[in-house]
Predict the 3D structure of the following.
Amino acid sequence: MPFNLGLFYNGRIIFAARGDQLALFVNEAIRDGIVFYKTQKSERGLRAQVKIADFKKLRRAARLTHTRVHILAKYGWPFIAMRWWRRKTLVAGILMIGIVLASLSQMVLSIHVEGNKVIPKEQLLQSAERLGLKTWVWQKDVDNRGIAKALVEEFPDAAWIGLENQGTQITINVKEKIRPIVLTERGNLVASKAGIVQELMVIQGTPLVHEGETVKPGQVLIQAPAKIENPSAKPKSGTVSKPNPTLPQAIPAAKGFARARVWYSAEAKIPLIEDKVEESGRSAKGWGIKIGNRVIMVTTPESPFSQVTKEVKNHTLTLGRNWHFPVEILSVDYKELKTVHLERTKAEAQQIAEKQAREELQTRITPGASIIEETVRVLASSGDIERVRVETETYEDLAVYPNS
């Protein structure tokens, strides 16, 4: 390793020599104190490496033996330094851009708010700015914990507020308090689904169905009573006054329940022979640069897999709220897909179909409903496809308000 570092630091010139007196050329060069490295001789001539200072000494031996010398390559730090010195303006520009980007990376360039629904975003940003969180300030000068604590105390609807540094962006994560939802009971009670009413209990209102009757979705089960005004909201007799808007009017609502038998059914089909496309577990990543509408991929420009799903993510530098750096970094994730050939027995296909039908039923059955009976039926197969139907009978309350 020390020899390789020294070789890179001092530099070498790789050349090819052609002529009829190559042996005399080498002897004369050695007599002048020139040292050859990695010398190779072929039918076309001689190939070797020499130090930079020794290359000029080859002129005497080449002129004496009528040998032609051609430079093939230049290797080492001296040539790299000379190349960049010729482009010193470009190097200075790159260094300046690097210094600017390094400085900007230590500053807060954008502020983002997430999780707020009730708390206005503008008020949250104004309060944060008053507490010291604003753009174009050093990140080390921002007290994340202190600002988060002060914001929680200022906004009563906030249960928790946290500040998260994401590069040059600070995200204000808000967790709002969950207020209890007050259900408004108004209007008639209607049937949420079709079924046969088994038990009807009326607490307030007029029943429009009876036990043993089959009802349809949306059919009125219990009618709400007539509207009754709040007596305190009425003016006294003999006086003329406007009703007080602060005293609410009584809202009529039907109350009760209607428990009924409800039937559900779901059917699933599973083929005995199937070709499925799924992820193989292999993946590859690539990244590139996007300038305007032009994309230049630096690594992995094309997918290494024949079948693939591709996910592209953009990474950009934002300055303030509305200005974005014109150059974006793209990262591409390639996930290989493979075609899997499946052959199932009838029993396996029926088992999978039954499972899928049950899963579909779970999404349709009312939560908390009591299951009375469940039947699994294997239907007549068509070709290489097995069909299974699952039928479920439940006992549940159908009475709901129309807007619930």
